[in-house]
């Protein structure tokens, strides 16, 4: 059963109001309730280039907020200039999604958010290495402890990133 919480909207640098046309409640899984602190940590991770093998790209490189959380490329471009097989999708309103990626291969945001990190053509980093790198930054250790009540780990990394993505919403398009 999904918990429903008020929209936090952390996609921009500041908290926004709920866009017209959207439910004021955002679904989240029972094992990952949405909190402002968790979404803020996820936002920080979303922009962190340490999550790519050569530290050259972040999630935001392809899901650029200035380009409606996508990019201008016909195919996604990952580490070492490698091209993926599909265009980078926009990630608005994924909180209401039932499957993720163009082919629906991920059943939850918690599963989806780490697949680009692991993908050899995208960020090409193991979760063990991602946690190790983030653990080198004392601020991350302290933030994970404050948000989750335990040390930095791959499950909570997934939860924080997924929480941030849930706050990226759009609902007041003139279309």
Give a short overview.
With 175 residues, this protein is mainly α. 32% of the residues lie in helices and 6% in strands.
| Radius of gyration, in angstroms, nearest whole number | 15 Å
Structural class by helix and strand composition = mainly alpha
Main beta sheet: 2 strands, antiparallel
**Poorly predicted segments:** 1-18
Count the helices. How many?
7
Task: State the oligomer.
Answer: single chain
Rounded average pLDDT: 86
How much helix is in the residues?
Answer: 25-40%
Distance between the ends: 32 Å
What does this protein structure show overall?
This protein has 175 residues and is mainly α. Helices cover 32% and strands 6% of the residues. It has 7 helices and 2 strands. It has helices spanning 36-46, 59-62, 109-112, 115-118, 127-135, 138-148, 154-166; strands at 2-6, 25-29. Strands 1-2 form a two-stranded antiparallel sheet. α1 (36-46) crosses α7. Mean pLDDT is 86; it is low at 1-18.
List strands and helices in order, with pairings.
Layout: E1 2-6, E2 25-29, H1 36-46, H2 59-62, H3 109-112, H4 115-118, H5 127-135, H6 138-148, H7 154-166
Antiparallel strand pairs: 1-2
Short descriptors:
6% strand, two-stranded antiparallel sheet, 175 residues, 32% helix, disordered N terminus, mainly alpha
């Amino acid at each position: 059963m999904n918990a429903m919480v008020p929209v936090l909207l952390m996609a921009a640098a500041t908290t926004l109001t709920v866009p017209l046309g959207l439910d004021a409640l955002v679904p989240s899984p029972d094992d990952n309730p949405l909190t402002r602190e968790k979404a803020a940590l996820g936002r920080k991770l979303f922009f962190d280039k340490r999550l790519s093998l050569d530290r050259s790209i972040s999630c935001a490189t392809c899901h650029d907020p200035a380009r409606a959380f996508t990019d201008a490329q016909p195919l996604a471009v990952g580490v070492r200039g490698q091209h993926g097989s599909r265009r980078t999708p926009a990630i608005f309103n994924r909180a209401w999604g039932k499957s993720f990626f163009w082919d629906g291969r991920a059943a939850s945001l918690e599963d989806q958010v780490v697949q680009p990190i692991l993908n050899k053509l995208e960020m090409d980093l193991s979760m063990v290495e991602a946690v190790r790198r983030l653990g080198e930054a004392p601020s991350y250790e302290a933030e994970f402890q404050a948000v989750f009540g335990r040390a930095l780990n791959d499950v909570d990394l997934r939860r924080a990133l997924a929480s941030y993505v849930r706050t990226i919403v759009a609902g007041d398009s003139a279309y």
